[in-house]
Amino acid sequence: MHTTELELETVTPMFLRGHDNRTPELRPPPFKALFRYWWRATRAITNSDDLREKEGEIFGNTGKRSSLQIRIPGSTQLKIGDYQPLPHHTGGWGCANCSNEDKPCRKNYENKAYRPDEQFPIILTADNLTYYNPSCHL
Fold first, then answer.
1. Most-buried pick from 47, 49, 126, 127 (CB within 10 A)?
2. What is the side-by-side order of every strand in the sheet holding 119-126?
3. Bridge partners, 7 (sequence order)
4. DSSP per residue over 73-104, as a string?
5. 48, 102 in Cβ contact below 8 A?
6. Contact in structure between 31 and 122 (CB atoms under 8 Å)
7. What's the pLDDT tens digit per position in 111-124?
8. pLDDT band (50, 70, 90) for residue 75
9. Are 8 and 34 within 8 A, CB to CB?
């Protein structure tokens, strides 16, 4: 098994939720989903069955567990603030981004999120870490 530590930084408010769907919480599954998404986006495999098979070998599927383990130490130290997920919506009757003139816009609410400019480590452990690097093609 090989291990590497990445230092990440939030650039915009990061809306990740925990078990109660209210409190911000950094958990490994969203990061694994990001690695999976970017791996898929950088492949030149046109056959979807081949893509799905290779993806399952690397990230796991219903028949096989992935060797990738993700840990996020110190994630509770990140600062939290209130942010508007849809900042282009102004709310009320005059919202230029809402096409429904019969109802006022209610999309200008705020949620708790991790603040921009926060840094945190994420530790990856796997048999072969090059699989999880989007710039490495298989």
1. 126
2. 2-9, 119-126, 69-71
3. 121
4. TTGGGS-EEEE-SSTT---BTT-TT---TTS-
5. no
6. yes
7. 999 999 999 999 99
8. low
9. no
